[in-house]
Amino acid sequence: AQSVTQLGSHVSVSEGALVLLRCNYSSSVPPYLFWYVQYPNQGLQLLLKYTTGATLVKGINGFEAEFKKSETSFHLTKPSAHMSDAAEYFCAVTPWGGNTPLVFGKGTRLSVIA
Amino acid sequence: DAGVIQSPRHEVTEMGQEVTLRCKPISGHDYLFWYRQTMMRGLELLIYFNNNVPIDDSGMPEDRFSAKMPNASFSTLKIQPSEPRDSAVYFCASSLWEGGDNEQFFGPGTRLTVL
């Protein structure tokens, strides 16, 4: 079975500061990992994904995440926060790729302070 | 591409009424997923289809919930009778099998309020 733990339901950063959103997963098989972003009253948009290969994954809007098998982590980072980054972020895992159901974390709400 | 289309965007109904949520996946996609988002439980899978056939419905809460996919371009999620605890945002997502390196595309969701 797969599960995802996102540490911190709410993270607040200043504009221009580093963004770090934490995600730890549990999976009985090599996982596929995803980060989605949800803006208010909208659906989920894919930020980035790890399937195989390079463990440092770059996504849209300047975000990146690193898959660390030894730590079972897939933390999301962005060097410099922008006001437009304020949203809800979800980490998700699936064992067989995007054609199987995603198991989501509880989400982390990111606030960016001017 | 228009993306995944869901209707209605908002639905307010009274307890005991039948509710039907609709989803049009991205053209050509062969997988369709229904998820529910609540404050208490977060995002959870209800059911998913492959080539219009239900694959896993273990997330459907109870017999009051049913889902169909009569063709590749349309799916419905029905709740009958509805209860206040069904209030949530219901998302539909679709994907295309491409050997595993793929993603699910989400619709904007239907916000359901049962009074």
List the topology elements.
The complex is a heterodimer of chains A (114) and B (115).
Chain A: E1 3-7, E2 10-14, E3 19-26, E4 32-38, E5 44-50, E6 56-58, E7 64-68, E8 73-78, E9 87-94, E10 103-104, E11 108-113
Parallel strand pairs in A: 2-11
Antiparallel strand pairs in A: 1-3, 3-8, 4-5, 4-9, 6-7, 7-8, 9-10, 9-11
Chain B: E1 5-7, E2 10-13, E3 19-24, E4 31-38, E5 42-50, E6 53-56, E7 65-71, E8 74-79, E9 88-95, E10 105-106, E11 110-114
Number of H/I helices of chain B: 0
Calculate the mean pLDDT score of chain A and round it: 92
Low-confidence stretches of chain B: none
Sheet bearing the most strands of chain B, described?
A: 7 strands, mixed
Q: Please estimate the helix content of chain B.
A: under 10%
What are the secondary-structure elements of chain A, in order, as H or E? EEEEEEEEEEE
Overall mean confidence score, pLDDT of chain B: 93
Helix/strand class of chain A:
mainly beta
The helix fraction of chain A, in percent, is: under 10%
Number of strands of chain A: 11
Structural class of chain B: mainly beta
Oligomer: heterodimer
Instruction: Work out the strand percent of chain B.
Output: over 45%
Q: Low-confidence segments of chain A, ≥5 residues, pLDDT <50?
A: none
- Give me the count of strands of chain B: 11
Q: What is the molecular shape of chain B?
A: globular
Number of helices of chain A: 0
In angstroms, what separates the terminal alpha carbons of chain A?
A: 41 Å
